[in-house]
What does this fold into?
Amino acid sequence: MLMNKKRLLITIIVLLIALIIGIVFITAGRQKPAVLDSKVQMTAFNAGLETKAHAPGYGTTYEIFVYSFCDSDGDGIGDINGIRSKLDYIEDLGFDAIWLTPVHPSPTYHKYDVTDYFAIDPVFGTLEDYEALIAECHERGISVIMDMVLNHTSTEHGWFKEASDYLRELPDDWEPDSSYCQYFDYYNFSRESKEGYAPLEGTNWYYEARFWSGMPDLNLSSTKVRDEVGYILDFWIKKGVDGFRLDAVTSYWTGDPDGNVNFLRFFCDTARSIDPDTYIVGEAWTDRANIAILYSSGIDSLFNFPFAGQEGIICNILRGSNSASDYVKALNSSDDAYRSANPSYIDAPFYTNHDMARSAGYYALDQGPQTKMSYALSLLMSGNSYVYYGEEIGMKGSGKDENKRAPMYWSDDPDDPDVCAGPPDMDEVKMKFPSLKDQQEDELSIYSWFKQVIKVRNAFPAISMGKARLDETVSGDTVAAFFKECNGEDPVYIVINLSEETKTLSIAPDGMELSAVLNTNEEKIVFENGTLTLPSYSIAIFS
Ligand code: CA
It folds into this structure.
């Protein structure tokens, strides 16, 4: 009898244990079904990552070339309402700001020669469309950055036409008088032919036009021109624009950095006097030393050109001309140079823009991993990181400017109404990677990679706000290992394998755990007992 009771008790205990194991097993299976379904580790591993708040300006911005992005009305030209229809797409990718190339009326497709700073080009839509875009962006927490081209106008701008008409009527032996025509002061006219000057038709005068004769340079030292800039800023900031991207700031005064600093300071002071939170980023296509000089103006951001493009630091590392550890060293020297000029600067990393060949053409034999890793190096930089539309699907485009601005490759469907016709005179651009529609189905596509990298960037604010510290014991020619640290945020430790072989690395990430993975293939990233197994072209993030 006693024996039977004992047996019954044991049987009950065994059954209970089996039941508990069963429940645990089923629950685990239910909690992480993606682990079982996904063949790519990052899809499941990063599934629980959530976006955390960052300081203003330290976000991720999508550059939209308006003419080629999305057509809403069937004329083949991208427009404001097309952009509005793609805000779900932009938000889903993890961007929290958009920069639109110029939207003001202009005779060209690119609109970098403005005829009216207070209006929207009718091919792009109406002022009401633009205001609706701003409102919808703000509802989603997306900022809108307006491209502001102030180095020059179009020759068809009313200011230039009035000044030209005045000079055409002015007798040759008379001195011009701006009290008769104030617009004479708006540009740089000269009776002598000089470098960078073009002849004014029907007169013996010349005017400064550094880019081409259709783009006369404004006289930015004129008080009246500066007043106009104030009216323009007031108009758009009150419409809700959050920031401005300043075109060609090194050409304000060609070869005179002090003049450029002076105008940038005026611009920033004027904008901030209207709204202190206005964000300003400048295009200074130059080297680190010259960018640092311009930071002394107090401008928030200047694009970090030395890291970008086919000749930049990132591409050189991917090509093997520089070591992986040089990436972190370059981050530090760049930060030192800019921070000493403006302690509150926000870096503006990017990899390509509308003036550069697209990155998918940089590595001839690459089937994806190198293109992906180069973009990760850009997106893991601190500051406000910029991505040119179409780069998230590895679009192609090089040679003439029009080819760099090919229609966003939404799908292969020739009847897809969203797909634009592209700039006039564009060559046929042959794509290397599939359309967005196809890439969205593929966990290993360029698109899926971008989404994961931005997700990781958004989940760990130390990535966009922190300072990099090289881990010299692990880093080398093809491995970059570094901490990113900033006050008030949890630090992260990042290990990047830029080689074609799997690396087995002994690491000591200060008690941190493997928290996110970025894979370019189906091999798993594993961290066990201080040993990190990092497959070819992959990234491990610890926190
Ligand atoms: Ca259209």
